[in-house]
Design goal:
Shape: globular
Number of strands: 13
Number of helices: 5
Oligomer: single chain
Helix content: 25-40%
Distance between the termini: 35 Å
Strand content: 15-25%
Structural class: alpha+beta
Radius of gyration: 19 Å
């Protein structure tokens, strides 16, 4: 793992809520660009995003244009929309003081120049967290610089650990999918399929890190087996954390718990690996 976990914790994980919601809303422009220009995948993966450690950004899949592949992304540390070609950022819009309407006009103009379809008319198939920017208010990032930088580090560290975890399952079939950020919940995760079959019935385990949500007001790692485990018959977790049982069943370690580990990166890897092995063993009994 390349990420330096000692850099995390300068800002408490419970202080990232405002930065997270701003980022979550801003990210939708990248996924809208993908939805406008890519064929829909059954699992909605065409709308997911990939963490780019070089640029500290979440990018949509490549959009084939008359000028080569175009990717639209969000740089989290300063909340800026990016347009990249060939791995190089060619255009940037910093979002402080901008409205969603202005952002949409900017993205659409860049997409049209590349011969791509505009993103402005795309309707999202899910509800977003309530925030004034959705009603036309401009993004106000005053006093959010430290929080956004910390949020970016959480994404960078999480992506690094999840890629390491995924690499350890290379011999498993069907096995893990790519590490992607899902714009609905804003989590970064890999889905490990344990058997072939329809997504709603086949056994699988979702392993990821959320930047926070209505369940936990801070980043948290989760290992969530499917079909859902019986909450009354859950064993003790060997590497810290706890079982979450409200609305979903998962082994969870909060940001505060992760920062409290002696070796944060390896400790988080041990937690998700241990949770995965417990989940796989319990699912095998079904």
């Amino acid at each position: 793992m390349a990420f330096d976990w000692s850099k995390l914790g300068r800002t408490p994980p419970t202080a990232l809520g405002v930065a997270r919601i701003h980022s979550h809303h801003a990210l939708q422009w990248a996924t809208k660009a993908a939805r406008a220009n890519l064929s829909a995948a059954p699992d909605d993966s065409h709308s997911s995003l990939e963490w780019d450690a070089v640029h500290g950004a979440l990018f949509c899949p490549p959009l084939l244009s008359s000028k080569g592949d175009v990717r639209v992304g969000l740089r989290v540390a300063d909340l800026a929309l990016l347009v990249a070609r060939g791995g190089r950022v060619v255009d940037t819009l910093t979002l402080d003081g901008k409205t969603n309407a202005a952002m949409g006009a900017w993205i659409d103009s860049r997409l049209r120049v590349a011969g791509l379809k505009p993103a402005g008319g795309v309707e999202l198939p899910y509800a977003m967290p309530r925030h004034p920017v959705a009603s036309g208010r401009p993004y106000d990032l005053h006093m959010q610089e430290r929080e956004l930088s910390e949020l970016s580090r959480w994404f960078g560290g999480s992506a690094d650990v999840l890629e390491e975890f995924r690499s350890k399952l290379a011999g498993l079939s069907p096995g893990p999918g790519p590490v992607r950020c899902w714009p609905h919940h804003f989590d970064i995760a890999t889905l490990v399929r344990l058997e072939e079959g329809a997504a709603g019935t086949a056994k699988s385990i979702g392993v990821g890190v959320s930047p926070g949500d209505e369940y936990y007001p801070q980043p948290y790692a989760y290992v969530s087996p499917w079909p859902r485990l019986d909450a009354a018959q859950l064993p003790k977790l060997p590497h810290g954390g706890h079982w979450h049982t409200r609305d979903f069943v998962a082994a969870v370690a909060t940001g505060e718990e992760i920062l409290g580990l002696k070796d944060r990166g390896p400790g988080l890897l041990a937690f998700i690996t241990g949770g995965f092995e417990i989940g796989r063993a319990l699912l095998a009994k079904r």
